[in-house]
Amino acid sequence: MGLVTVTWTNYLKKRIPLRIRFLHTLKGNQIGQILMSPPLASLDLPDIWSPISSCRSIPAIHKSFNEQTTVVLDGKLISMEIRSKIAAKVRQMKKGLGKVPGLAVILVGQRRDSQTYVRNKIMACEEVGIKSLVTELPTDCAVTDVQNAIMRFNKDPSIHGILVQLPLPQHLDEEKVLDAVCLEKDVDGFHPLNMGNLAIRGREPLFTPCTPKGCIELLIRSGVEIMGKKAVVIGTSNIVGLPASLLLQRHHATVTVIHAFTQNPEQITSEADIVVSAAGVPNLVRGNWIKPGAAVIDVGTTPVEDPGCEDGYRLAGDVCYEEAVKVASIITPVPGGVGPMTVAMLLCNTLDSAKRMLNFS
Amino acid sequence: MGLVTVTWTNYLKKRIPLRIRFLHTLKGNQIGQILMSPPLASLDLPDIWSPISSCRSIPAIHKSFNEQTTVVLDGKLISMEIRSKIAAKVRQMKKGLGKVPGLAVILVGQRRDSQTYVRNKIMACEEVGIKSLVTELPTDCAVTDVQNAIMRFNKDPSIHGILVQLPLPQHLDEEKVLDAVCLEKDVDGFHPLNMGNLAIRGREPLFTPCTPKGCIELLIRSGVEIMGKKAVVIGTSNIVGLPASLLLQRHHATVTVIHAFTQNPEQITSEADIVVSAAGVPNLVRGNWIKPGAAVIDVGTTPVEDPGCEDGYRLAGDVCYEEAVKVASIITPVPGGVGPMTVAMLLCNTLDSAKRMLNFS
Predict the structure, then answer these.
(1) Residue A302 in contact with residue A283, Cβ under 8 Å?
(2) Cβ pair A192:B197 closer than 8 A
């Protein structure tokens, strides 16, 4: 008996609804691509999603190599634009309902970097009119202390988002802490049910983790086509690597996840059109890891000693910027790239949550 | 200021505990590899996990190409061995507690393939001494009818696993149905909380979906090293593709997921040491898609017309077997490869569940 051969193209025709197939042909069409991106509950703000031309005004490095222009994405500028739209929506909510979104942050211990991150988040909340509350707990507190703090916020109707600043001191069971956050207020998207719903096709998580959500927002706003492209995610953390790979897959990229056991990571990365690096290893990704014209999103923010800086240290990305900027078509700097987007996405998730809870559109 | 360069190797040394690093050096050592595999709640039966030499007795095709022997994995034989061990454990439980594991199956509609699958599962239960109950519902039933059937089994203390045979008729909301299965009895592992816990590093799902679990079991039993190897999963279904990619990542493979939007899938697949194909497209994976010496696990079971067969049709895999068998080092046939393993893993999950609920070790 002869072989039954069904080509991949026939398979596509059979399996992909006509609308999607049609959109698939709109290669390079930014509006087509944005419309086509799978709907994400946490990215459903039309005022944030609409394609903007703001990235045109971002400082760009023009270079001669390969006659290509590298766009350095200004995360600060883009996040400011998003934040101003969130602020407008918050004002609208206050006017209409007499209520504003509320974010509760729980900070355990005295880590300087965590304190800085929490301070930045609180300041960002204030700026857009989101109410914020911080509960600080001592390093040696018990897991029940953290859980109790969470429970109080779970019950508080003025709070729409609860965030536990990670990492926790080692003696605290992260799983027990994160599971205490009620699903409807899990604005970090770290609850396993939110992660499961992010992974499962046809389901929608209530929240998408802020950093990977910011990465995708940067890619889409820069006109990077994701569908069908090869994407490499470096790092498998629950906070960035895992949800970034799931999000890129939702946008129909062909995703490879690279980690410490990967053989020849440089070779695999050098074939990718999109690189999202979240390994936490300064200068891991060298220029020769990058395919010419690739989009490079650097999530790394590792503190490294630097006597020249005010605090004696600076934040270093995973990507060797000086080398990569000569090869990539789009790149994010550290600091000032993904970082500000993470905070903007947190505000966005908190606003989304308040809108859902208060039935405000 | 000079660049701070941390090599990947240094990163490994910093991040990977000594025990794992030591085991990482045991390349090709099967026992080392099995010990090293991340613990999975659903794969914790020592009598199933212990490396066995059964695959040595599997009929193998010896061929001259590249002086390499291709092992054709006999899923029936391997699953029989697993089932006999499950049967022994069930007898032990019956003797010790006077109770046996119980599986409830819900079948909606008249699909012939679904009826066959359910019949096979029930027969397998009987064979190992697991009690089974089947609820059949008409095609046009309401979602509440299915939910009510599930609720009854949720409350029934003699039932330790509940399985809803998929696919459901189109008018029924799969999400609403699957979410009704209580987490502790979700032996299919399709609940989003189980999937989230499978995805999140450091967490353990109560159950791992049966088919991908069977694929990994086949790989490990055949001595295929997974850690650090390039693996390609073809297909993104919630039942196979997604959990297979998550499982392979747990075993530290470098995983790429291929789907209908992937460009040059044959080129990407041809670089993989391990191929798990679950696209449902007969003969999609041709011989030239396979890297010489790769392990090929074919999950496809698409009914194709065949007047020569008793029922007028036969099940076809995704892999063009006649071509692939000449290139791969290990391959599963269709039928008789992954299929019987899926049923064995379902029994395994049901036994695990009963052991956990009845506190029996």
Answers:
(1) no
(2) yes
